Amino acid sequence: MNMQPPNRFSANAAQMPVAFDRHEMSQILSVYGRMVAAGEWRDYGISNLRDMAVFSIFRRTAEHPIYRVEKHPRLKSRQGMYSVIGMDGRILKRGHDLRAVLRVLERKLIRAVNPD
C-alpha cells in the first residue's frame, strides 16, 4: 500500500486545496504587520479551500473579518486571481499583481496631518 502524501505533480494534485505561496504570504504579512503596528488590525485567519485561498483580517478577535484577501487560480486568465473584499462583500480591488491589489489596504495608513 502506497502511503506517501500526494505531491503537486501527482494525479491527486488537482484535488489539493489552493494556498498562498511563500512569496505571496510575505507580501500579505508585510502589509498586515504595518497595520498591526498602526493599531488598526489585531488578528488574521487563513483558509485553504479547494478552489480558493483566503487571508481574513480582523479588527478584533472573534468578529467578522473587515477584509479578505482571496486567491482564485481559475480567474488567472480573466480579471486576475487576487482580490481584496470588504466587510460588506464588495470587491475593493482585483488584479493579476498581488502587490498592486494590496495597495487598497495601505491607503488606510495614509492620514491627513494637521500643520502646527
Q: How do the strands and helices of this protein lay out in sequence?
A:
Blueprint: H1 22-37, E1 43-48, E2 53-58, E3 67-71, E4 82-86, E5 91-95, H2 98-106
Helix pairs in contact: 1-2
Classify the secondary structure makeup into a structural class: alpha+beta
The total strand number stands at 5
Main-sheet strand order equals: 1-2-3-4-5
Largest sheet: 5 strands, antiparallel
Euclidean distance between termini CA atoms: 74 Å
Helix content: 10-25%
In short:
22% of the residues lie in helices and 23% in strands. The chain is an alpha+beta fold and 116 residues long.
Task: Characterise the protein shown here.
With 116 residues, this protein is of the alpha+beta class. Helices cover 22% and strands 23% of the residues. It is built from two helices and five strands, in the order H-E-E-E-E-E-H. It has helices spanning 22-37, 98-106; strands at residues 43-48, 53-58, 67-71, 82-86, 91-95. Strands 1-2-3-4-5 form a five-stranded antiparallel beta sheet. A hairpin with a 4-residue loop joins strand 4 and strand 5. Helix 1 runs parallel beside helix 2. The protein is globular and about 35 Å long. The mean pLDDT is 83.
What labels describe this entry?
116 residues; 23% strand; alpha+beta; 2 helices
